[in-house]
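Example record

The entry below shows one chain as it appears in the dataset: sequence first, then C-alpha cells.
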Amino acid sequence: IPFILETYNPDVVIHDIYSPNQMLTSRWWLGYIDPISQRYNDIDNETRLQLKSEVLEMYKKLDIMVGTILNNTNENAVIVLSSDHGAVPLNKWVMLNNLFAKKGWLSFRINEETGEPVIDWDNSKVIYLKMDNIYIDPEGLGGNWTRASGEEYEKLRLEVMDALFELVDTETNIKPVKSVVKWEDVREYLDLPEDRVGDLVVANVAGYGWNEEMTTNKQIFETPLKTGYKQAIYANETKGMWTPFIIMGPGIKKNNKLLNPIEMVDQYPTIMKSLDYKIPEHVEGRILGEVFE
C-alpha cells in the first residue's frame, strides 16, 4: 500500500480483498464457529478456539491494511469500506437437477472418463442453473434459449413449483424452499429485471443451498465439504448476509450510525456525492443524505 501511494500518487486506490469470502465459504471455518450451524458440535472446544483465532487473525490483518491506507492519506481523503455479501453456515446441498431428473423432466448421463454430466437438452424440459434460476420449456431446452409460453408451459411451471414446495429433508423435517417466484413477478418481489432471470427464481431457507450437480444415484440432499455459502438467501431476514458500509471524509458525519439496512445500490450515488461528482440520471439507488453533515 505505501509503495503504490508513494510511487504513483493515485487519486483513487481500490483495494479488493477476497480473503473473507474464501475463508468463510470454505471447508474449515464457518460451520464450526457459528453456533447456528448443524456442524458446530462436530469438533471439540480446543479445535474451535483454534479456528476462531485463525478467523480473528484474518480480520486483524485486514484492519492493518485499512489502517495503513489511513496513515498514507490526509484529511481530504474519502475512505470507504464495503462488502458485496455476507455468509452463513451451509448444512445441506439440495441437488435440484437430481430432483428434476427423478421427475422425468431432465435427461442426462455421466461421462465415465470425466465424471461430468452430459445433458440431453432436446429431451430435457426443466433445469436449474446459476444460483437461483430454473429454466422450463415443455418442448425441450435444446438450441438457443427463448422464453416459452402457452398452456403446456404454464402447466409444467406449476408442476415444478409444486415439486419444489413439497420437497422435505427427512433428516430434519425442514422444507428447504423459501420461495418460488415466476419471472414476470421478480421485479415486484425480488427487485430483479425480468429479462435476466429464468422462468422461476427459487430462494432457499438459510442453511440449505442449491447445487447444479447431477449424479447417477439422483440423491437430492447431501452434506457438503464446504461449511459456508451466500447464494439465494433473503438477506433482509438473515443477518449473516448483512454487510458493512463505512464511509468517512470531509462533510461526512463523525460517529454516526445508520440505524436501518440500506440497499447495495445506495452506496454508489452516496460515494459519488462525497466526491462531488454529478450522478447520471440512469444510476439506481438513493443518496444516503443521513450520512452527510
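Notes for this example: The chain has eight helices and 13 strands. The CA atoms of residues 165 and 177 lie 6 Å apart.
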